[in-house]
């Protein structure tokens, strides 16, 4: 079974966060993801073990590939102003605890290394266009380090054992703050995805004695174009870009994955080259700077030139005419 399919079985297909929190957190619930014919206890257990092994192996490979990118200074990031996503309704019952996963999130010192390597490469680059592009990527990285990873519309899945009031899913407001029940607002400005859990634990320790905090960031994006099931999907921020396409049922037979882009409103924030690097290197949605409301678009392959279509239509008409003449002459 391909690794991408194994991962796909652990993801929520659609927008149902109510029962899907388990899959978003990486906790296998085969009753939702495996065909009914395979949900016997023995079969489900075997499939679960097999898929878990495949998923762990794939994540380890992805971690190595991202580490190589860090060493070489190759980075794919996006630009543009934050765009607020539609408001999400909070779940009425406390969600399950986020689980530890093997997907590696870039730390602050690694992103600083990215920026330094980009600047170093720009200084030795002779092509002006390429040099400007490297400096632009450096500036975006520096802005990310300053502003943080969380914008309006991001959702934070929070679990604090013993405190059901704040064990829920909360939406980041337009001022980059979280509003928790009976507590002062917590600002996420300047906080990276890799820092989220430790940061929230430090903040909550001011009001709760020795809290144990588990946190996972989620975002809602659209997948459009030539995919099996286009629509909006709620995903983890550390979901690989390729997995997002698979969540939408995978590319259709007429899809041109080489031309996939990430859009924010009417602007393209990650172009074709950046998306290809993301697919090859197993970069996550957070790695490419995706934000709530962004659109991953997969265009279709060209179906032929205008003249080819006209020629095909003319040939069809000619064939019909000759058929009529033949029948009439008999």
What would you call the structural class?
Answer: alpha+beta
* Envelope shape: flat
Q: Quick one: how many beta strands? A: 9
Low-confidence stretches: 1-54, 67-95
Mean pLDDT value: 74
Largest sheet data: 7 strands, mixed
Tally of contiguous helical segments: 10
Commentary on this structure:
With 330 residues, the protein is an alpha+beta fold. It has one domain (3-298). Helix content is 42%, strand content 13%. It has helices spanning 3-8, 17-24, 30-33, 41-72, 108-124, 128-147, 196-204, 241-247, 272-281, 306-329, and strands at 155-159, 169-171, 177-178, 186-187, 214-225, 231-236, 261-264, 267-270, 295-298. The strands form two sheets. Strands 1, 2, 5, 6, 7, 8 and 9 form a seven-stranded mixed beta sheet that branches. The protein is flat and about 95 Å long. The N and C termini lie far apart (59 Å).
List the helices and strands and how they pair.
Blueprint: H1 3-8, H2 17-24, H3 30-33, H4 41-72, H5 108-124, H6 128-147, E1 155-159, E2 169-171, E3 177-178, E4 186-187, H7 196-204, E5 214-225, E6 231-236, H8 241-247, E7 261-264, E8 267-270, H9 272-281, E9 295-298, H10 306-329
Parallel strand pairs: 5-9
Antiparallel strand pairs: 1-2, 1-5, 3-4, 5-6, 7-8, 7-9
Helix pairs in contact: 5-6
């Amino acid at each position: 079974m391909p690794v991408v399919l194994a991962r796909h079985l652990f993801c929520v297909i659609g927008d149902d966060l109510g029962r899907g929190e388990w899959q978003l957190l990486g906790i296998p619930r085969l009753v939702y993801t495996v065909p009914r014919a395979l949900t016997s206890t023995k079969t489900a257990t075997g499939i679960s073990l097999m898929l878990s092994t495949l998923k762990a192996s794939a994540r380890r490979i992805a971690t190595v590939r991202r580490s190589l990118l860090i060493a070489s200074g190759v980075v794919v990031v996006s630009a543009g102003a934050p765009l607020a996503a539609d408001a999400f309704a909070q779940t009425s019952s406390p969600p399950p605890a986020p689980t530890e996963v093997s997907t590696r999130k870039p730390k602050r010192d690694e992103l600083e290394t990215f920026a330094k390597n980009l600047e170093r490469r720009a200084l030795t680059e002779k092509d002006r266009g390429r040099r400007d592009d490297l400096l632009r990527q450096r500036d975006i990285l520096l802005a990310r380090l300053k502003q943080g990873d969380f914008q309006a519309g991001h959702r934070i899945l929070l679990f604090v054992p013993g405190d059901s009031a704040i064990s829920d899913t909360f939406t980041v407001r337009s001022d980059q703050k979280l509003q928790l029940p009976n507590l002062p607002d917590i600002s996420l400005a300047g906080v990276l995805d890799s820092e989220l859990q430790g940061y929230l634990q430090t903040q909550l320790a001011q009001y709760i004695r020795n809290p144990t905090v588990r946190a996972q960031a989620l975002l809602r994006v659209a997948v459009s174009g030539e995919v099996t099931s286009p629509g909006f999907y709620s995903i983890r921020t550390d979901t690989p870009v390729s997995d997002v396409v698979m969540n939408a049922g995978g590319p259709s037979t007429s899809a041109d994955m080489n031309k996939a882009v990430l859009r924010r409103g009417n602007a393209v924030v990650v172009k074709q080259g950046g998306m290809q690097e993301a697919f090859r290197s197993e970069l996550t949605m957070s790695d490419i700077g995706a934000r709530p409301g962004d659109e991953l678009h997969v265009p279709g392959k060209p179906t032929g030139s205008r003249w080819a279509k006209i020629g095909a239509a003319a040939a069809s008409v000619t064939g019909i005419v000759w058929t009529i003449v033949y029948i009439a002459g008999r």
